[in-house]
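This section describes the prediction task in plain terms. A model, or a person checking by hand, is given the sequence of a single protein chain and must write out its three-dimensional structure as a string of tokens. No templates, partner chains or ligands are provided. The sample shown here is typical of the held-out split.
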Amino acid sequence: MGANMNFQGDSVNLTAPSLALSMINVDTDEFSGLTFGVSFSSSNLVPKDPLTTTAIHSSWILNSYIVSASINDSYVNNLKDPVVVTHRHKNPKQPGDRVQCMFWDFQNNGGQGGWNSTGCETQSISPDQTICFCDHLTHFAVLLDVSRAPVSEADNQILTLISYLGCGISSIFLGITLLTYLAFEQLRRDHPSKILINLSAALLGMSMLFLLDSWLSSFFNYGLCIATAATLHYFLLASFTWMGLEAVHMYLALVKVFNIYIPSYILKFCVAGWGIPLVIVSLVLAIDKDAYGNAVRKESAVVLQSTDPFCWLQNDVFFYVTVVAFVLLILLCNVSVFIVVLIQIRQMRANKPSANSRSTLNDLRAVASLTVLLGLTWSMGFFSFGPARVVLMYLFSIFNTLQGFFVFLFHCLMKENVREQWRIHWCCGCFRLNDYSDWSRSVSVGGHCKKNNLVNSDSVASDNTSTIRKVSDSSTGSGPKHHQGA
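The expected answer:
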């Protein structure tokens, strides 16, 4: 009504039973703030629609007027001071009564609408009034926040900062990792390297979409928001699918210790790694495309604290089925493979009592590398509840936003064969390595033996000790050892 009304003068006020509307022409150069108040008498009150008062639960009743605000042709965000909304109670709060700030979600109840408390925070409760503001979760943990409950404003701001910094750093180093493996043919001839390339691409897509989500969502374009949320959902699922395929390859290399011929090995992995997420996202869009949406809605019952919007899965059923359950299944499989790897490392150490501290350090690096590749740090999302919830969300945001950086650390910076390729092609002066050095010739010669579809193509050894050493070396960066032992 207000957006389509023409009036003369600086302001106009309209009142009706259960409705008060105020419109103001504002000079942006002189505007210093606005306070809006409404007084009423009990005789003007009319009964509310039962759907409005019982949309969440039969025990909840609406105890204040619904307040909303907007600015024509503008989107307000990044305010230094939050918008504070004070709701006066229609009936005094009694001891034992629970008060909660909510907003009206038009997507609830099959499009009929309903109250939603997601992202809303209740402040300063007294018998006669409640101060409310709502925000949404833009930090990285929201992608796997099992409880889907809000956090405090201070924690939300810190988590958001950590998330954007971590995703930005990971995006840069994932780009370097992809460029390195794609530029140097010697590095991408074996199966683990090809799987790593696909995993890095999925992680890069997820990080970039997360960084761009708020900007794309700020346009409040219905189709764009759905496309953004669906694409972010796709890359999240693709990342976990490739983590699972990484575990499958490790299982075949460790348990099936003899060379196994699998036709079109990497092609089949690519079909599964990129196809399974596509099927899941397509099913969600086909069943209910409105499952994706914006976490900040303009049609709110409580004025929102203006922050960046965020397009993501808003339907809890789809979130728990296609994200939580899928991720949990992948992590359970990956944990099982991780335990097998630890057992193999322990058996190998038991067979080498003379092993020194350097080999112990290499084993620890192998364990850390496997933790990154298998995405085991994401399991913290399933324990983010109770008193330790905020602490675990901090750890979740730090470790998982930096997953791309750790991939670069373990599989580029700490791998000798990658460093040598950098020195051969990208360095100059005394740092440059001669193309015809003994090391470069060994890589070139050793690389040709890997052009096959054998899972364990680095060696024909069939004992568990040699196999786990190959996996440990490939994880920690002792690339030339593969060829030396061949």
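For orientation: Residues 42-58, 296-307, 436-452, 456-486 have pLDDT under 50 and may be disordered.
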